[in-house]
Structure formats: C-alpha cells, structure tokens
Amino acid sequence: MVSMKDISAACGVSVATVSKALNDHKDVGEETKLKIKKIAKEMGYFPNSSARALKTNKSYNIGVLFVDEIPKSGLTHDYFASILDSFKVAVEAKGYDLTFINSNNLRKGRLSYLEHSKFRGVDGVLIACVDFHDPEVVELAQSDIPVVTIDYAFKDRLAVLSDNTKGIRDLLTYIYSKGHRKIAYIHGQRKSRVTEERIQSFLDTAKELALEVQEEFIVAGKYRDIPNASKNAGELLNLKDRPTCILFSDDYSAIGGMNEIKARGLSIPEDISIAGYDGSDIALQMEPQLTTIIQDTRMIGRIAADNLINMIEKPGKTEVEHVMIEGILIEGNSVRQIGTN
Amino acid sequence: MVSMKDISAACGVSVATVSKALNDHKDVGEETKLKIKKIAKEMGYFPNSSARALKTNKSYNIGVLFVDEIPKSGLTHDYFASILDSFKVAVEAKGYDLTFINSNNLRKGRLSYLEHSKFRGVDGVLIACVDFHDPEVVELAQSDIPVVTIDYAFKDRLAVLSDNTKGIRDLLTYIYSKGHRKIAYIHGQRKSRVTEERIQSFLDTAKELALEVQEEFIVAGKYRDIPNASKNAGELLNLKDRPTCILFSDDYSAIGGMNEIKARGLSIPEDISIAGYDGSDIALQMEPQLTTIIQDTRMIGRIAADNLINMIEKPGKTEVEHVMIEGILIEGNSVRQIGTN
DNA sequence: TTTGCGTACTTAATCGTTTTCGTAAGGTTA
DNA sequence: TAACCTTACGAAAACGATTAAGTACGCAAA
C-alpha cells in the first residue's frame, strides 16, 4: 500500500505538499504539482478512504436501509430492487459508494440504525422498504444525517413518492371508461401510506364517477402474495353478484388472480377483467398483457440520489422537497370493453 | 460524537485503558472495566469504523462486485438478487457490512475494481454476475484480497457453483421419462461457464439416453429475454417436425415461450410441453405450474458468505473450496405424459 | 533482604490523511 | 533601504482508535 509518505520520500517534498498537490490546492508550485502527480501515478498510489474519512468527516459513502427481515429483504422485491439499482448508478456517477445499514454488529452488540450509520460515517442514507413507524427508523430519519425516503415522507426530510392517488385514479377511470360498473379492489396491507392512499383514491374516484362500490368489493389482501391473491379472487368470484373487473394490489397478486380465474375455466378478459399495479417485467409480457400502472422506478431512484447528494453537498441551499413521480397507465388487454358494443 | 477520549476523561483513566476495557483485554481490572463499560453506554459511545480500520487494517466490511452496466445491474436479476440477499443476511449476522464495489471515483478519476476495493479497505469481495473474462475482474480475483465467486471458479479461489450439469441431466431425464423423444433446448448466451455446462450436459444426457437430438432443436437464445424467447419458440413451432417439448434457458424465457404457444391457440402441456430453469417465484405459481429446476439461491449465498468469512478470519486454515450446490427438480405440470397411456 | 513476577495501569507511537500556521525567498512599493 | 506582499513549501497537530513497551506496586519465593 503506497502512501503519501512514500510519495513524499520519492519526490523529496513533505507529505503536506503531496496532499495539497494531489488535491489541487493553490499553494503548490505548478512544476512540483505535476511531478508529484506523475510519481503518484507511477507508484500506483490511491488514497485510503478510512484515513481520509477520519480526518475530513466525509466518507463519500451513502447508507442504504432496506428491511433486513430474514429471510427476505427489499433486494428480492423487484420494485425496490429496481429503485436501488438506479439509485446506485446515480450515486456512483457522483463518486459515492453504497453501504447497507443494518442493526447487527458483532463487536459491540446491537447498534441502532442511527448508530450504525454514524459508526460507518455515511454522508447520507436512503431509506426504503421499511416499516416507517419503527422507532429506530424514525430516529434515523430525524437525525442530523441527510436522509431520503421512498414512498413515505417525513416532515422536513427529502422524499420521493410515487403518485398512487393519480395511479389509482387513472386506472379506475380507465376501467370505468371501458364500461365496467362492478369493480372490486383487492388492496395490500393497511397502515402503510401507499395502501391508504390507494384505497382513498379508489373511493374518491368512485365517488367522482358516481360509481357505487359494494362493501364486499373492497378486499383486504397482501402485497405480492400469489396464493393469497388467488384465495381473495376466488371469494370475489363466489359472490352471487360478482364484479366484472378485479383490481389487484400489484402485478404478482394479479398473477395469483389469473391462476384462480383460469382454474375455474373462465377466461381473461372475456369472462372477467383484471388489472395490476407496478408494471413489472412479467406483467408487461404476459398473455393477456396485464393492464397496470408502470411505476417509474428508474426515475424514482435517480431523483432520490440527486436530491440526497445535493442535500449532502449544499445543505443550506437545498430545499427539502417531496417529489411526486407519476406512473403511466399501460392498457394491455386484460380489461375488456363492456356494454356499449 | 463521543469518543474514547471523552470516556477516559469521564472515568479518570487513560484512553488506552478505555480501549482495552471495551475490547475486553485481560490487563484491565475487573472493576475498572465495568465502570468504563457502564459510562461508555451511558454516554452513548460507539466506535468509529474509520479510525479502527485505519489502525487495524480490518474494516469488517465486504465488497460486492455486481455488474454495473447502465441501466441494469445484477440487482434487478432475481437469481442474483436473491443470492445477494442471503449473502447479506449471513455476513451481517457475523458483524460484517456490505459495500458495493464499482469503478467510479470522482476525486481520483477511474479506479480499477482492485484499487477501489483497497481504497475502501474491504476484507473480502463477493464477485457475481459479472463478465469473468474482464481483466479487472481477473486482477481482483487474483489479488491478495479474499474473494468468492458465484457460478464461476478461479483457480485457488473460493467459489460457489450451482450444479448445472446435474440440473439439466435431471430435467432432461425427467422429460424423457415422460415419453418425450423430440426435445428442443433454447439455451442462453454462449461463452459463459453456465451455458456451456448446460449445453454439454444436455448433449451428454441425450447420448446416455440414446436420444437423438436434431441440430435445429438446439437454439441459441438469450437469458431472461421474453420477446426473444417467443421468437425462438415460434421458430421451433414452425418446423415441420416440431419438438414435443421445449426446454428454455430460464423461467422468464419460458414465459415468453408460453405466450407464443398460447398465441397460436396451442395449449400447455396438451399440445406442447415446456420446462424452465431457476425456480423463480412466478414459475412456481403460474398456471400451468412450470416444470423447472429450483436453484437454491439461499444456500448459495449463505455458503459463499460462510466460506468467505472463514477465509478472511482464518486464512491459513481455510481450504479453498469450489462448492457445488444442487438444484431441485420441480415437476409442475407443464410437461405431459406422452405415448405409454 | 533481594529478586522476580503478575497485575493494573499509563505513555507514546502509529495508521494515512488534511489543514493550520509558520517561514524563507523573492519581488514591490514608498 | 525599510516595510510589506506573494509564493511555495514544511512542521506539526489532529482525526479516533490500537498496541507495544514501560512503570509502579504488592506479594511470594529464595
């Protein structure tokens, strides 16, 4: 490991001068600066992030807090994985690295998320796919470390949100426009911002459309649980007055619904229409292609990265934004035209 | 940020004693040790990883090298995401953190993967989902940093491999046992160990079974490319002597095949049988359920983590293993019984 | 009594940087 | 010529930890 000391020896200057030369400070002669840089390159020098971070209190490292429940973390959740992916690309382009934050630490017992973040000296943290009511998450979000959250907004903290209200409104309006009047919604677990917002939007939009929603058409399901979605769909199909269209909490669940529907010998969309949410790869490629809302995960990740880095680099000058990213309705062909033909 | 200095002041002992007390060295009085620990906890002390890493040359941090091609990295590839997920859980349980390695670094121009790993001082690196012929990857793998690779083996370096030979053999043998004699294989991109191994196993197994494989039944496809798989499947269906079963490179591709088959009004498995590979969530839940090989990603990640950490912690005593993890055949119902009934 | 030894601490160096404060040399200005 | 800047560099402290080496003390063995 060649250090500045080695370079200083090789160049016959002090370490201080080497440091200043490599960091392009003004008070180093042009000639010396060039020589130092040349030798440094020749010797294969590169800095030591620990030493630098220790001295400067800046790590060029960003923490990522994803749920770390065993056995599944956000990594296997394609919506979040995709956001993380674009977040990663964006921060790396600006010279930052990514380190996962968790609460394990063998040497010192448990560390809270905040402690762990400080232990690693991260410059900021991306919080996504967690229980936002977890006291430790709240503690981290309200600390002095810059933070950006996905799909949840803390007061005075950066957030990037996908526009669920508009998404559901677009979806429901589209389905309505195709002539459907009996529309069911199997939604995800309650208590999350996302779910509440979607349910509210469903009800609001229904009211705007003067669409009557039967109580049993609003079903409490689970996100991304295929078997459970089959079960829920089955119950809807068993109703004497069954819906003509079922809206699922996400594309995976829609697949579960499809399975159940097909198992009963019904076909989509002829006998019953369905819609999903998320715009996952498979949904876009299925037969029939699923009607769904594509969430622009690439944009969400990139904006989160840009805003967070701005906040890190110009704390005062960056305004705390809650950015809303709209999804795009994909018509597909899982919702059929009813009535008017 | 409360440091050891603060604790030493509060306890009236030297920093050295504080350090030794917190690290449970023997030469600190029991009483003093307890007092120091108590005060440290009260003051909310936790260590500074940079300082510690600087001094000890140990970061308790493991690098992860996933392809960082824009716009897709291994994070959106469910097979690798799932491996990374279990790897993460396993290393975190042992007190290690995970940092992504890449080749960007704003401050010092480009850094090679190896340089970046040393810059961050990681104790080891997980290499997966990359081009193993990339000189930089090779350089890193052959450096003095402990490394474990997934689905590729470097000489004298840890590796965890999924047993593709056995997987394909099991799959083909199963299909053969169901009476199929005209079996096509749409495989993934060549030049990777995985693909070559699978093709070889397909041919070897066919030979063992005395199964004649027509040349046009071995099709060069692409991994995880649904539209491309549809196209490839379509071409097979156009053959005058079409196969009775098509084996796809992966489950996603199988979905592409299903689409094409259904679009032609054929049904699975009555008119044509199919099989996938990977055992992804959807494959297991589809209708008809896909016949496929589940790759035990959870095991792969965990073994990789355990072996790497062993190598890090007991370099001499750990033997360099290439662990082979077997997949499990899932029968599903996408391959029908032919002939004998 | 002397020697030796274990215990419980402290001192001080060190890891690789960055940065403040000097300072010497040379040039300007009055 | 005296006073004052600039410019280019170096010395040294500091970041927060670890650790080898040293010291002082009490006590047991010879």
Topology record:
Two copies of one chain form a homodimer.
Chain A: H1 4-11, H2 15-22, H3 30-42, H4 49-56, E1 61-65, H5 78-93, E2 97-100, H6 113-120, E3 124-127, H7 135-141, E4 147-150, E5 158-162, H8 164-177, E6 183-187, H9 193-208, E7 218-220, H10 226-238, E8 245-248, H11 251-263, E9 273-275, H12 281-285, E10 292-294, H13 297-313, E11 322-325, E12 328-330
Parallel strand pairs in A: 1-2, 1-3, 3-4, 4-5, 5-11, 6-7, 6-8, 8-9
Antiparallel strand pairs in A: 10-12
The structure holds a DNA duplex (30 and 30 nucleotides).
Description of the molecule:
2 copies of one chain form a homodimer. By secondary structure, chain A is an alpha/beta fold. The first copy, chain A, folds into 3 domains: 4-47, no CATH class; 61-162 and 298-325, Rossmann fold (3-Layer(aba) Sandwich); 164-295, Response regulator (Rossmann fold, 3-Layer(aba) Sandwich), CATH 3.40.50.2300. Chain A contains 13 helices and 12 strands. Chain A has helices spanning 4-11, 15-22, 30-42, 49-56, 78-93, 113-120, 135-141, 164-177, 193-208, 226-238, 251-263, 281-285, 297-313, and strands at residues 61-65, 97-100, 124-127, 147-150, 158-162, 183-187, 218-220, 245-248, 273-275, 292-294, 322-325, 328-330. A 6-stranded parallel β-sheet of chain A has the order 2-1-3-4-5-11, with helices on both faces. In chain A, strands 7-6-8-9 form a 4-stranded parallel β-sheet, sandwiched between helices. In chain A, helix 7 (135-141) links the parallel strand 3 (124-127) and strand 4. In chain A, helix 10 (226-238) crosses helix 11. The structure holds a DNA duplex (30 and 30 nucleotides).
